[in-house]
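Field log, afternoon session.

UNIT: design team B
ACTIVITY: writing a sequence onto a fixed backbone
BACKBONE:
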């Protein structure tokens, strides 16, 4: 695909795939929410997601994208790009909210990038639709952020009080595994983006990420949850199918920026929950570590967001699309 119009169609089909996967997530979520308020947030967003899917499909129809094109792209998207969440089935309210928070930011990124491409292509109706949907994704992300406390309560409810320390070790090992994945992503990213400002942002955050991993490891060691627990964590991470997320290989600077933006929000939610569990467990050192890392993840996410325009340009250049 080389023309700007074809790029709009490509971004629209990506958005359509994302919404189709979101529908699956939204339908399953209330059953694992473990809390009526969390469940109703997902029920509300299911109705919104149905509307998003329909709006995006209408834009594709209006642009005359053929069923064959749609099928081809839908097939391709499972192997690459934005589709990393497809198989994830979180098993606790905490993981559900963490995952969904990250997913909403992936949608945010997708519509943000779509609106920029559609604007360049002069497709004002797609710009309007993308911005309209973006507002609802942002609202859902904000709702989820307001539910972190409830998610921790719901997740811990089934645990006996004596298990709180063990629960905290699990959250710490998850954080450790997520940082390990972040290091892999950030290690590859500069080569994929091939754009100096983006590459610099990734490289800069890699240094911070190494520190994060070390800080989390120190807390695990202090809590005597050493090497064997870390191995368990890696296994559990695979069992949870976060793996699908990390195996995704975004193939353009724009997708990689969107993917990394979602990833930073996975980390933000993970540390928000870790801080709360640590507080409940009375481990002030671990809580302090989470509170120290959180603003750095937020800053990394904001930095990426500020580079979406740069990423859009770099993406078009990589696809050989001339700017208008
Ligand atoms: Fe959506
Ligand atoms: Fe959404
Ligand atoms: Fe990060």
């Amino acid at each position: 695909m080389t023309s700007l119009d074809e790029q709009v169609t490509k971004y629209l089909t990506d958005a359509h795939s994302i919404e189709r996967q979101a529908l699956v997530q939204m339908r399953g979520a209330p059953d694992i929410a473990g809390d009526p308020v969390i469940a109703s947030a997902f029920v509300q967003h299911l109705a919104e997601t149905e509307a998003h899917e329909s709006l995006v499909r209408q834009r594709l129809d209006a642009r005359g994208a053929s069923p064959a094109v749609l099928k081809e792209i839908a097939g391709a998207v499972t192997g690459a790009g934005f589709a990393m969440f497809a198989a994830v089935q979180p098993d606790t309210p905490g993981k559900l909210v963490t995952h969904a928070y990250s997913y909403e930011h992936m949608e945010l990124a997708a519509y943000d990038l779509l609106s920029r491409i559609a604007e360049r292509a002069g497709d004002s109706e797609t710009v309007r639709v993308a911005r309209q949907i973006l507002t609802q994704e942002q609202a859902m992300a904000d709702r989820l952020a307001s539910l972190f406390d409830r998610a921790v309560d719901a997740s811990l409810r089934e645990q006996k009080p004596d298990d709180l320390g063990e629960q905290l070790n699990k959250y710490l090992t998850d954080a450790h595994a997520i940082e390990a994945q972040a290091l892999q992503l950030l290690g590859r990213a500069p080569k994929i983006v091939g754009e100096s400002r983006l590459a610099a942002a990734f490289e800069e955050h890699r240094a911070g990420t190494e520190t994060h991993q070390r800080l989390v490891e120190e807390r695990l060691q202090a809590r005597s949850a050493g090497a064997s627990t870390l191995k368990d964590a890696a296994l559990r991470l695979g069992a949870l199918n976060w793996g699908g997320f990390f195996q995704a290989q975004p193939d353009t600077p724009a997708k990689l920026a969107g993917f990394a933006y979602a990833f930073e929000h996975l980390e933000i939610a993970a540390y928000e929950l870790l801080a709360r569990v640590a507080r409940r467990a009375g481990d002030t050192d671990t809580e302090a570590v989470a509170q120290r890392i959180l603003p750095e993840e937020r800053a990394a996410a904001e930095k990426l967001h500020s580079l979406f325009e740069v990423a859009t340009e770099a993406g078009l250049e990589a696809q050989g699309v001339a700017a208008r």
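LOG NOTE: The chain has two domains: 1-158, 163-318.
NEXT ACTIVITY: expression trials, pending approval
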